[in-house]
């Protein structure tokens, strides 16, 4: 028998959704049933660990025997028995279930700073964090650095806010610290609202103490004794783990009065968000903490001058905070050595869309889109052609395929009409209609507009209506120009980032895919064959076997025919619902 | 003091002054729909956007603090276009019923639409349908006309401290409403009606009354409590059709439910219109001529004074009458009747 | 007002409403400001937003409590003990303003002795307010840089009302919170022109401007201007008139624009007195309860139908302007009084002032007796320096606060900056007395009365406004839920309320706006007139009746559950 056995089960929200709870329980049960613990010389442990990013392959399990790690994918509880008997007891890894090369390729080009310990340590155990070097940075800071030195370190590291706008973090702290005030606040923005994005959630679920430690460093640097984590209530696991982490940190003396006998005091409260996208906007978030409706306030004054309760406030997002302990531990120079000229360090992206390997990745700034999509992401699903990449969440923009070699950093993304945002990345292929994509995102931003300012409330509504009518074949001559005009005016006059950036999907798709708009409007044609009202459904006789599925599915009787004989679709009564297309097993229903 | 340049003119202001306030000192007119100097700046309507040298985007003058050396432009082709778009957007979701709106002629939105010559709208589309009727007896709430400037919400919070209404819902569905969209149940001060820039909030008491034409305005003082609020009576011929209060008064334009809505007594049919005399004890009060009334009073007062002395007569003056009337009343008792039996019921 | 006039030499709000926003601590006692002075209450709320501390002392949880740092819910009628206890704490903790006391007051030593027994524990026993709250209130008030006191009928309408007011004055003197901006002792006036009515000498003991009519010099001046001999005997107060009417010595009464038959405490008693009158004239805009008893009713003008001035609570004289003509044959009050003056054979209204060298407009020959508002105002200014500097022209924009003795004078936002009219005000030791009528086993509840937001006074105006009447249509009694439970009364149940003087029926509002043992009824409703129940016992000095405290019994109507 080996000296040590460690089983790590991926227990992020993705893993748990895949049944990780049961897998973990099965391991415990199987190990004890076989009395493995007694036979192992040094230690035998089953740990839950956070998300390592490749959620598509959940449940992921690492079995480490005497430092030899083997990773398994798609593990279900009923597979545990064999893993224990063959691998742990028998010493023979189960090759069938091991991760493929693709798993390694997914990780090879990544550089993990923020996510370094996600997936390797137990997020519910402060000792695991400490063993991995946690709370070393704050201990060192409290022992031997002045606040000004800390701010200088952060400034020199080149770290920029990971929430979207990319404001230099050190500069923000400097501004806040320079204000005369009897009190300053620290806020961690964990109100991650972009659909499909889960960067912050994974960090808090996988390594909550890194965020707490980052906030401690910030609090010490600007002289704050009170912090908030504003986190969405829709993240129950993250909230639980954060709460637990705060309790553990307090018990260990990392939070509360006179931390580590340094005279510095700081504590953190959790404030749950109620699901409004706009509360991710910093001034709306502050209003929400104050008990007001989450509506943005005009800037200036900026939160660093007048933030929570009118006091100077540092607000950074989860990823930004989690970057701080490594910066302190390894130094500004180390951090500044990673990334591109003006964007330092790494960035976490949630990679989704028409791509083989969806999941969470952390890459150095300046990496090309090509590397992300074709190496880490494994290319486009189904061998189709890449059309564009949408970054920056619902109010980001679409980067067309011709910019595939773009080095990903804040400034380059802005230059091509998109933005970094908090790290959403949706890959679009030739089967995606760009007008419809713009409409989709506008639908989201319009519904999430807080209603305070006119251009956002009504401008996005009108943009959405124009886009909708284009996708429905009601587009008019001049609509593209009208969209451009209105989108520009909304961008220029909106109060907060939501309204300012909401037109991005429209503007960037018009910029790069104007011909698709023109096809919709002038030819009443959707090149990607997505906009149903512009399609004609028909049945290819040579492929139809007359099974009758389309007839049964058709709500209007347009699809009809005799059994065993080719069916037809009557275009005059067809309502283009697509039901026939979806049910046909022989791909005989076509759309044009 | 700091100084800044607005449209090429220099102005000195105290620190903390907004760009809008600074512009108003120079009497530069920047349009606004959501601003009231009595309330905290909001920055919602976006109409007061200005260009500031060194800033990439236009900013709202109402929320931007003036900074020394700032160079501000309040009118440009671009600003004109942006403001016009904002108003056009507002009108795209506003009922076009100025003809029958209580605020016609006194509506900020209507005025801006007029200034920006908005006849056709590029953005016709869905319009809100908040058709819920609020049954409260004071305030008519036609939320289809609401432009979400937030003035009512803010005045209710910042001035009245009642918080009877707030924003609810999001996006196109955003609206101002009492909790759970119930009927308004508040102090009915009508501060919200006073600050509403459109016809969304109006008084039910003056619904259907004259709006502008033939209306005479008289500044006077409220006749209820001792606050002594300044009010403006809107009258048509001899009828009070509405009461407002000017913001530049010691009560800053704020009134209470009684002061704002409780004026029906003035033209009430119960008003006494003729002297009444009870010709014999136990009889009824009957209409009489002034001459008869005066004769009777003078006769009786003289008789009592002669029979029992002036101190058998007394007068109760009124806390409701003017200073002049009270002065003359006590003088009447002291100088004409000859007694100091003069007092009033409200000795407090 | 007698209390304030006694201590300081002037009875009015010492400070201005606008100053409230700049106050550091507000002590609101016996004033339901939000409902009775809604616009003044706005300034109080603003003060709180600006960081001021608000202390509310009231037996009821009035709306202002929502904004208060401290609510002292004392038993009705125990104000003096409460105030003496607060002052005891201030002196015990050395928080009094020694400098002010020595420079500007007298009689502090004896006063201080009198406070010795008013320990917080004793205060708690008598008032029901926890000792620690009393201590905190004392500290808040005494340590604030600028602290203001605001009160209304909750202080004055008691048999010891004058003593209540003097106690408040003591408190302000003790801490030097008078004679400075945003401080003071501030009675909020209940009606639009109570202040003006008092200013204009509608009191039995003073001429306009609070000038004593027993002072021969003063009287001579008035005789000179009015051109006639004037009586030097102090007259009857309103409440004394009621007694004189009952006794038969007061035979004729002229009531201008008031409704005592409804507003005076102990209505039954009041009505009996009115019925005994030989001759009653009532001049009003509606046929009020009092007018119904009259021998002659004269139809007058509402405020919208005449020119003149009102003086608000903060001594601000403001222009009232005619917007309408009077309905029917109704006439404005000056026309009526002028005609009566002539009928009474007094035809030299203008003669004497003309003789004194003042210009009288052409259309007023000596024979004419009807004064225009402006003439009346100028004549009043001639006799009272407090408004001498005011003219209609000057009042046009926003009014002026008296005193304003000369044309160039800007008016006076706050009084007593440099001196008090009495010189150095004296501290007066006040010993608490009990309310005239205390609860017993037959009448176990303390009734207190007041106004509500949507009605006004006896309702002759507000009850004729449809909207106001819709939201506040009927009389009610507020009962604490604990008492209601004992009486098996549910919210909205009909009840009868009985005092030694009468019975009324109304519905119950069960809740915690009043404390146990206390009930509240608004007095606007003739169908259940609270003043049928109230006590007409008088304050011995200023003769205000004790409308705020009497003992009642409550009975549920109908079968008990």
Structural features, described:
The complex is a heterotrimer of chains A (592), B (348) and C (561). By secondary structure, chain A is of the alpha/beta class. Helix content of chain A is 40%, strand content 15%. Chain A has five domains: 4-99, Glutaredoxin (3-Layer(aba) Sandwich); 126-336, 3-Layer(aba) Sandwich (Rossmann fold), CATH 3.40.50.11540; 346-429, Ubiquitin-like (UB roll), CATH 3.10.20.600; 434-522, Up-down Bundle (de novo design (two linked rop proteins)), CATH 1.20.1440.230; 535-591, Alpha-Beta Plaits, CATH 3.30.70. A five-stranded mixed beta sheet of chain A has the order 10-9-13-11-12. In chain A, strands 2-1-3-4 form a four-stranded mixed beta sheet. In chain A, α12 (236-251) links the parallel β6 (226-232) and β7. The longest helix of chain A is centred in the last third of the chain and has 19 residues, at 504-522. Chain B has 348 residues and is an alpha+beta fold. Chain B has a five-stranded mixed beta sheet, with helices on one face. Chain B has a three-stranded antiparallel beta sheet with strand order 10-11-12. Chain B has a two-stranded antiparallel ribbon with strand order 6-9. The two termini of chain B are 47 Å apart. Among the domains of chain B are: 2-75, Ubiquitin-like (UB roll) (Roll), CATH 3.10.20.740; 209-271, ADC-like domains (N-terminal domain of TfIIb, Single Sheet); 276-344, no CATH class. Chain C is α/β, with parallel strands linked by helices. In chain C, 31% of the residues lie in helices and 16% in strands. Chain C has 21 helices and 19 strands. In chain C, the strands form five sheets. Chain C has a six-stranded mixed beta barrel with strand order 14-18-15-17-16-19. In chain C, α4 (79-92) packs parallel to α10 (161-174) and α7 (120-127) packs across α8. The longest helix of chain C has 14 residues, at 79-92. The chains are: A alpha/beta (592), B alpha+beta (348), C alpha/beta (561). At the B-C interface, β10, β11, α6, β13 and α7 of B face α3, α11, α13, β8 and β9 of C. β15 of chain B pairs parallel with β8 (252-256) of chain C.
